[in-house]
Amino acid sequence: MDRIRINPFRPLGAIDPNLFGGFAEHLGRSIYGGIYEPGSPLADEDGFRRDVLEALRRLKMPIIRYPGGNFVSGYRWQDGVGDPSERRAQIDLAWQAMESNQFGTNEFIKFCRKVEAAPYFVVNCGDGDLREARDWVEYCNGTQPTYLVKLRHQHGFPEPHDIKYWGLGNEIDGHWQIGYKTPAEYARVATEYSKLMKWVDPSIKLIASAVSSWDGDVVERAQLLLEQAGHLIDYMGLHGYIGNPDDNFPKYMAQVEMLDERLTAYEGLIQALRLDNKIKRPIAIAVDEWNVWYRTHPEYSKDINGLEEIYNLEDALLVAMQLNLFIRHSKTVKMANIAQIVNVIAPIFTRPDGYFLQTIFYPFELYSQTCGNITLDAIYEGQTFSSDDQSALPLLDISATLDSQNNQMVLYVVNRSQTADLETAIQLTEGGFVGDVRVVTINGKDIKGQNSFETPDNVGARESTLAAAGSSFVYTFEAHSVTALICSLT
Ligand code: AHR
């Protein structure tokens, strides 16, 4: 029989709650018609969709990145503050769309308060300049009676917004970006932006736009960036999207191995550069855009349709596996932001009279609501599978966490077999189980099953319990499923 052995006394890393962050961009129906729809019968007094806020609260996102994405590289934050009737509209060149600027800095702050998330702003390092970035920090966080701080007061916010997280541009390594920069150019830009933004508010945390294009100059970029700005940057931001364009189930299930290799390599790279450059302060990884995205990706389709990707069950498995990956790398990955939150490659899909929950909503909700504060060492000994170019991959993809205050362990398991249920012994190497185990399973009849307004429950989560005592029990993981075993320990 297959088995999973977990040592509850062997911590592998502290889990930062920011692993369950989100990302909202001015793109398609993400903001307008997604979270913000003044005049809708479903909107609250501030114009936010009450139903969407409710669904988002279930995801318990502690942090949300904004306003882009590619959009930010042409964004002027000043056009999005003050009296809405006087705001200037502009063409968003990144997505070739009209931007009314009716939603901006202060609307986003209100939104974050409603969903209890910390705002994470990205500054324009594309066609923007240093002054614009330092001014934005001052407008948001300033306490002295300057022109910009008084302007914030006039806009109805006497207290500083106290924005802690600031991103230094978006995907600046990609030729699709407004204001693409070479490694040397970005290292200079990031250093000067960081210096000035931290002079305005030394308490802020900065996230560099490190890698989105993985087949280019990953090492050179990190090297120049950390040589020059290693004393200022707090996170290296990495982006990665995956998908199943070949409709090949084993190959899709194996993609997370490639993501694991990238993270492992990047962790080593940061460590080596910190050593070489005598950087004593920690520099973490923020995977500040991740998800499944291929049906509406320009690389695979001409019809990108506001990136309104409709997800299926196999995509939900990949979302769970990416969360397993971040948990296993929790020592270095201290933030992750699913891209995005509503309508645009998102777990929530709206129309004017309501919404439905996409398949990928369920694993995100499960993990964000149950994940502990410490990663545990968990080892799977069992069956393997092969994909086109990889073999001997474990059929179960797993991670385990401990909530050290309540002595609660959660084992997360994705069964990557398309057909086989897997009977597995769950064994503690030390200590024992006590009371019932709460079991949450995400599955559906068909790996291609999708949710929709007509069939909202094709894929969803269901709960059961099982009794456990001593140091082991047996559980059968259903084919193509995500399971969380939530156990109390002695
Ligand atoms: O999330 C959609 C897009 O993906 C973002 O605008 C960009 O940063 C990335 O390429």
Describe what you observe in this structure.
The longest helix has 22 residues. The chain starts with a strand and ends with a strand. Helix content is 25%, strand content 29%. With 490 residues, it is α/β, with parallel strands linked by helices. The mean pLDDT is 98. It has ten helices and 23 strands. Bound molecules: alpha-L-arabinofuranose. The site of alpha-L-arabinofuranose has 9 residues, from loops.
Mean pLDDT: 98
Bound molecules: alpha-L-arabinofuranose
Strand order of the largest sheet: 21-20-23-18-17-14-1-19-22
Given the structure, what is the number of helices?
10
Uncertain ranges:
none
Could you tell me how far the N terminus lies from the C terminus, measured between alpha carbons in angstroms? 25 Å
Shape: globular
Helix content: 25-40%
